[in-house]
Amino acid sequence: MSLAPIDFWFDFSSPYSYIASSWIDALAASHGRTVRRHAILLGATFQAAELKSPVSYPLKREYSLHDFARSARFHGLPYTPPPVFPIPSQNAARVFWWLAATQGGSETGSGAARWAHEGLRAVFTRGLALHEPAVLKAFAAEQGLDADAAETVWNDPVWKARLKQANDEAVASGVFGAPFFRIDGEPFWGNDRRPQMERWLTEGPF
Questions:
Q1: From CA 149, how far away is CA 110, in angstroms rounded?
Q2: Beta strands in the chain (DSSP E)
Q3: Which residues pair with 10 in a beta bridge?
Q4: Could you tell me if 102 and 153 are in contact, meaning their C-beta atoms sit under 8 angstroms apart?
Q5: CATH 3.40.30.10 assigned to 6-203
Q6: Alpha carbons 11 and 179: distance in angstroms, whole number
Q7: Which 3-state string (H, E, C) describes 85-114?
Q8: How confident is the model at residue 1 (pLDDT cuts 50, 70, 90)?
Q9: Are strands 35-39 and 6-10 parallel, antiparallel or unpaired?
Q10: Taking the domains of the chain in order of start, what are their residue ranges?
Q11: pTM of the entire predicted model
Q12: Mean pLDDT, rounded, for 172-176
């Protein structure tokens, strides 16, 4: 009997989602699982939870910016602070859901999963401003997509509604930040929950 995928909610503007994207597939595979990704907007979850981004608070901002880079170094990952942060990520997220619907879902190895992984890398290793239409179109072409089709998608009410649905479903299921994971119904929030997830997958509930 196949095991259920690990659900992974992320935002293209989340540094910790970028870091988590580097290890979650390997962690899942080592336990006979795949990863099912969900692109969301952190703003929607923050609003529902009456929260704000940590960089919105003067006392937290400098620490948070420092920790993004330090956490990437800890995991051996390259990290380039984006020149604009945070960025509006709805257009990249709409393309994700389009790919999920047209290219076999959002599990490990799918076109949507690759778009998610490479999009996060583009933002946090190359400083690409994926909120700018011209930059996102160029990135889409780089990823082998029809750039004009991608632009049509992110302006299409159908995919705007699909992203809103994803945000609503995330909030309804208790997601309030990113990265957020669920393993057989058990929720884990944050890139730093990897050790707990490893133990849960290895030994079961604790």
A1: 19
A2: 6-10, 35-39, 180-183, 186-189
A3: 39
A4: no
A5: yes
A6: 8
A7: CCCCCHHHHHHHHHHHHHCCCCECCCHHHH
A8: low
A9: parallel
A10: 6-203
A11: 0.95
A12: 95
